[in-house]
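cron nightly-structures :: item 1 of 1
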Amino acid sequence: MIMDIKPLRYFIAVAETGHVGRAAQRLNITQPPLSRQIALLEEELGTALFSRHPKGVSLTAAGEQFYRDSKTILQSVSKAAERARATGAGKSGSLSVGFMMHAAYNIVPELARQFMSRYPAVSFHIQEVIPFELINGVTSAQFDAAIMLKPATSRGLEMLSLRTEALCLAVHKHHRLAGAKKVCAEDLVDEKFIVTPHNVAPELRNIIEQYCAEANFVPRVVLETQLQQTIVSLVASEVGIALVPEPLKQVCPPDVVLLPLNRAPVVEYVLVWQQDNSNPALARFIECASE
């Protein structure tokens, strides 16, 4: 146990048996030390807990109240010990995870369902955040972990690769390339690009620019916006074209066509957490993510 509750256990045994000798047998101790413990307890409390008579003992009014309170205390201590063990094993406690929107369609649903099903006693909070804020959220301890694209730097962080996927081209259904089976980067030289800003999703923006650079051109960016759903909505309005993760097909408007790219750039999703994060629930979450 986490504290000395032996006097309470001794008292309860005597109260429930009504006899010091039978209580000693129940506790597997001899009668004299038990009698001394009860006497010391009464002395400490400054009141008699038992009325002594030839056939045993009975509780006084003070003893009846102390019995009820002692039972409550023992139950609370037992529950506290159980909760402490569960929290230490990562089966209880709390866990906070941030994620970028892209992961809402390919990683988060199943991983969250699995973790919550396996560890229902963990208070689990998961929040969608723009990509740039995820690293700051982890390093500031706002989040225990984050699901995001692999960052360029990882000082002080641990990472677990979750999956990779290719980017594809989003165009309006009446765009000149809409009927193509596969599109090359060179086909996009004169196109108007809709992208996320560098300060919002630097990893994704760098991958798109590198893909264009390999075809010897700089993308002509006409509009920058934070959310991928906004990007495909703008594509549906024929504002421009975009390179987006393939799972976005789940939220694409009907006027948008997603096309495969030749030598398509690949993005890698990772789970990121601080090296010194000792939250046991995080260890259980990492186990789920590793499966």
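cron nightly-structures :: done
The chain is about 40% helix and 25% strand.
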